[in-house]
Automatic annotation (TrEMBL):
<protein>
    <recommendedName>
        <fullName>Tyrosinase copper-binding domain-containing protein</fullName>
    </recommendedName>
</protein>
<dbReference type="InterPro" id="IPR008922">
    <property type="entry name" value="Di-copper_centre_dom_sf"/>
</dbReference>
<dbReference type="InterPro" id="IPR050316">
    <property type="entry name" value="Tyrosinase/Hemocyanin"/>
</dbReference>
<feature type="domain" description="Tyrosinase copper-binding">
    <location>
        <begin position="129"/>
        <end position="140"/>
    </location>
</feature>
<dbReference type="InterPro" id="IPR002227">
    <property type="entry name" value="Tyrosinase_Cu-bd"/>
</dbReference>
<keyword id="KW-0479">Metal-binding</keyword>
<dbReference type="Pfam" id="PF00264">
    <property type="entry name" value="Tyrosinase"/>
</dbReference>
<keyword id="KW-0186">Copper</keyword>
Length: 202
């Protein structure tokens, strides 16, 4: 199993990406002739996650099958072009600040997933689909590449905080709190993936 899905390699024909393989991947599209379930998706019927039941869609209790609804043709090419290797390289080379790079990378990647895969990715319940995690690891990988590029910055960080009233400015001293999964640490502790706290590299 791959550690991340480099969707830039599949931007022209996403439905044929190896990540959707029935045996070695995560299963494919929703059943084409089945009823629509959520997010313009249909039940996934092949692969290791067929028949998985999700309980929510967005913030509403809507029990349903794991759902996908792949876009195709000209539409997938149109939303895929901004995350093509050439487009991502241009973004990396021309973005000199975190404020330029991070929001644009996020916009391109999330548009591709939301409008290309649909189903669970159309709401805040994307984590029901295991591919959600491969997608986000790839976003992390691309950020790490930008950080170590000539235009990036290893400690470049910013934007508004979303956990306080008034959306004050984010800083490297802000605390990352993820419940009981790991100890709380400052943002500065996770800016370098190869340091002692995270200890991984791409």
């Amino acid at each position: 199993m791959p550690a991340y899905w480099d969707w830039s390699q599949d931007w022209k024909n996403m439905p044929l990406a190896p990540v959707w393989d029935t045996d070695g991947g995560f299963g494919g599209d929703g059943q084409r002739n089945a009823p629509i379930t959520v997010g313009e998706g249909r039940c996934v019927s092949d692969g290791p996650f067929a028949n998985v039941e999700a309980q929510y869609f967005g913030d509403k209790a809507i029990p349903h099958c794991l759902s996908r609804g792949f876009a195709s043709g000209a539409h997938i090419v149109r939303i895929g072009e901004p995350i093509s290797p050439d487009a991502l390289e241009e973004l990396r080379e021309t973005s000199t600040t975190f404020a330029e790079y991070a929001p644009e990378l996020e916009r391109r990647a999330h548009t591709f997933m939301r409008d290309g895969i649909r189903g669970e990715f159309r709401a805040y319940t994307g984590p029901y689909d295991p591919v959600f995690f491969l997608h986000h690891v790839n976003v992390d990988r691309l950020w790490a590449l930008w950080q170590t590029s000539a235009t990036g910055g290893e400690i470049a960080y910013g934007g508004p905080r979303h956990d306080t009233a008034g959306a004050s400015a984010a800083t490297l001293d802000d605390t990352l709190n993820i419940g009981n999964l790991l100890p709380s640490v400052p943002v500065s502790a996770v800016m370098d993936t190869s340091n002692g706290f995270l200890c991984y590299q791409y």
